[in-house]
Amino acid sequence: MTEIALKLCSQKKPIPADDQLGFGVHFTDHMLVMDYDLKKGWHDMRIEPYGPISIDPSMMVLHYGQAVFEGMKAFRAADGNINIFRPRDHFQRFNNSAVRVCIPELDIEELLDGLKKLLEIDHQWVPSTHGTALYIRPFIFATDQFLGVRPSHTYKLMIILSPVGAYYAEGFNPVKIMVEDKYVRAVRGGIGAIKTPGNYAASLLAAVEAKEKGFTQVLWLDAHELKWLEEVGTMNIMLKLGDEVITPPLTGSILPGITRDSTLKLLKQWQIPVAEKQISIDEVMAAGRGGKLVEMFGTGTAAVISPVGSIHYRDESVVINNGAVGELSQRLFDAITAIQYGDKEDSFGWIETVKL
Ligand SMILES: Cc1ncc(COP(=O)(O)O)c(C=O)c1O
Q1: Could you read off the pLDDT of 197-253 as tens digits, one per residue?
Q2: Alpha helices (runs of H) in the chain, residue ranges in sequence order
Q3: How many CB atoms lie within 10 A of CB 304?
Q4: 133 C-alpha to ligand 1 centroid (Å)
Q5: d(CA 217, CA 220)
Q6: What beta strand segments (E) does 174-264 contain?
Q7: Which atom of ligand 1 lies at the shortest distance from residue 203's CA?
Q8: What pLDDT shows up at residue 173?
Q9: Residues 6 or more apart in contact with residue 233 via CB below 8 angstroms
Q10: Which of 141, 296, 314, 315 has its Cβ near the most Cβ atoms within 10 Å?
């Protein structure tokens, strides 16, 4: 069993009501912390009261962005226990991200022990209304006090928890997407396949400009030819063309989404034809015009499934499924959330339960 030092808070904060949660604005009473240095490696796992940390102005992460993070969710099951969705897969991706930016890897089972302990301590913060969840944010950042580009010799890992509201409190809301053909998010061989802050900084201006034009999000194209679909906002993208579901392959510039993987596994279980293959924006627009683009949706931890109601490319818009939620989008959303809340059998072994 992993050794975890506990220092609990003396005064607990009020827990917001389930209908007042929003996303990423409330934080629980405690956080998990761990340090790395060259001598001891990763050490000193501890749970402390949630609170500010002191930062030296020369701390390397502020200058060179050497950091990684994850985003996963825990759900209140009907029996009162807490279901964490695919935590080992999220921690494996955390490690994959770390390696790409020269951050030392962590022991996944130790991390999971720490997370489960943190959830036990802050269990009252896991909301119970259907659609709500506890968002889990692990992150690591470079802490050397040093100016100069090289990997840091010291790091801090933290896990913070945030109760989040129902993403679709008023039902699915199909989004209006603008195809981005000026800015790119990531290049092959770069850092697009990992969760590191730079990717999100790179995406901001495009998202702001798209919003100014009345769109919800951008559809990213590949950086070499501005031709092939990559992702939508901070989600993976899937299309139903005729009878087949298509999603771009993981070629190095796309984040390997856990929800993408869950979706692919469900589609295969349901024997729906599915292909991971490149698809060009011209093909998508032609299919839209010809009525072959049956559905389009994003997949990601925050929304699970996010139906796309229309796409706009250059001077043309195509409406998908009359702007309504597609049958497959709804079926996938229902199936994944049923497993998350423990309402349906978890035949894939995706749930890690914290028994209270
Ligand atoms: C850029 C990007 N793509 C895709 C995803 C979806 O990944 P997941 O399904 O693991 O949440 C995310 C969210 O984590 C993301 O930030």
Answers
A1: 999 999 999 999 999 999 999 999 999 999 999 999 999 999 999 999 999 999 999
A2: 60-64, 87-100, 108-121, 197-212, 258-269, 281-289, 327-340
A3: 27
A4: 17
A5: 10
A6: 175-180, 217-221, 229-232, 235-241, 244-247
A7: 1
A8: 86
A9: 203, 207, 216, 217, 218, 298
A10: 296
Give residues with Cβ within 8 angstroms of 194, minimum separation 6.
68, 93, 96, 97, 100, 101, 255
pLDDT tens, 154-199?
999 999 999 999 888 777 889 999 999 999 999 999 999 999 999 9
Name the residue of 73, 136, 236, 297 to mutate for ligand 1: max ligand atoms within 8 A of Cβ.
236
- Beta carbons of 276 and 261 less than 8 angstroms apart: no
**Residue 255 Cα, ligand 1 centroid: separation in angstroms?**
6
What separation in angstroms does the CA of 305 have from each of 83, 323, 348?
Answer: 19, 15, 19
Distance 6 CA to ligand 1 centre (A): 32
Phi, psi of 329 (to 5 degrees): -55, -45
Mutate to test the pocket of ligand 1, among 85, 301, 304, 340 (most ligand atoms within 8 A of CB): 301
Spacing of C-alpha 302 from chain mean position: 6
Quote the distance between the C-alpha of residue 298 and its chain's center: 12
Ligand 1 cavity residues, CB under 6 Å: 71, 231, 234-236, 255, 257-260, 299-301
Q: Is residue 205 classed exposed, middle or buried when 0-12, 13-18 and 19+ CB atoms within 10 A define those classes?
A: exposed
Full-model pTM = 0.98
Atom of ligand 1 lying closest to residue 185 CA: 1
Nearest CA to ligand 1 atom 15: 234
Name, in order, each residue with C-beta under 8 angstroms of 243's C-beta and a sequence gap of 6 or more.
272, 273
- Closest residue CA from atom 5 of ligand 1: 235
8 CA distance to ligand 1 centroid (A)? 32
Backbone angles phi, psi at 274, to 5 degrees: -140, 140
Cα of 283 to ligand 1 centre, how many Å?
Answer: 24
Q: Ligand 1, closest atom to CA 93?
A: 10
